[in-house]
Amino acid sequence: MGTLYLTEQGATVTRTGERLLVRKDGKLLYETPALHVDQIVVFGNAGFTTPAVQYVLENGIDVAYLSSRGTYRGRLQPAGAKDAALRQQQYRRSLDDAFCRRVARSVVAGKIHNAAAFCRRQRRLTHDGKRRLKSLEALLPKVRAASDLQQLLGYEGAAAAMYYQVWRTFLKATDFDFQKRQAHPPPDPVNALLSLGYTLLYNRMFAAVNIVGLDPYQGFFHQRKYGHAALVSDLIEEWRAVVVDSIVLTVINRREIKPGDVQRSSRGPRLTKAALTRFLSRFDTRLHETVSLPGAAGKTTYGRAFELQARQLARVIGGERATYEAFRV
Q1: What is the per-residue pLDDT across 237-259, written as a single tens digit (0 to 9) for each?
Q2: Tell me, what CATH number does 203's domain have?
């Protein structure tokens, strides 16, 4: 099962029997057996015929809509899980400060651990980078001892600042300028690539959370905010470095994407179509790589691991497990 990315502006998805076809101006661009697709991601101006919409809804295929720049807009989703009891437990747990702290500690500790582990695997770790990395790892005991969510938010923010200062030293390409992480709007090509990657990760986790039957908008670490899927933001933290940051570093250092592939406009940087295709291919390949996940039978893919982690959290919410354990490299 995989993801179908629609990047051709003006394209339309149609359905013939058990196959999905992508057409534009009467020309067939691509076709695939529908059983090979579990998600469709639409970039910009592309659409579906009514039979195709009915088919994806009836067969549980999630459809996410992004702007042509990769900003998440919304989704067309099938009925999915209807576990009202699980969501009731989720809402009750969200009012339990002690429970929220336990989940949040694991989320933040997992993010810091994986960020530090990713940095230690790199060959370009400078003396200053090692110093910053020690400061980053020194936050872990503080995270485990944190007494409230505000402290954890502070530690998470401090850790992110330290991490990106180390991460930027791994960029080999001198024509890519990256001073610090800035998301809204991304001021440079590196930030634009990171934002795109995090949007794709957010989108995949959103689908996983829906499959499990949890409410994506009720989190335990990130605060509720209109239109923000707080639980999805909770669950992607442990994956940022090992999935997205590694991809961005790869495409830049291998010159698969160059500064000229990122076009500047009044609305911020935007990838050319060819560069976007290369980045999406890298992301999709990463999701199909295997990883050892504690509690899983043998190895699984990164894409499948998102759902398994959401299921683990569901068991914690339901009282079947004592604590949530973030994925750790």
Answers
A1: 999 999 999 999 999 999 999 98
A2: 1.20.120.920
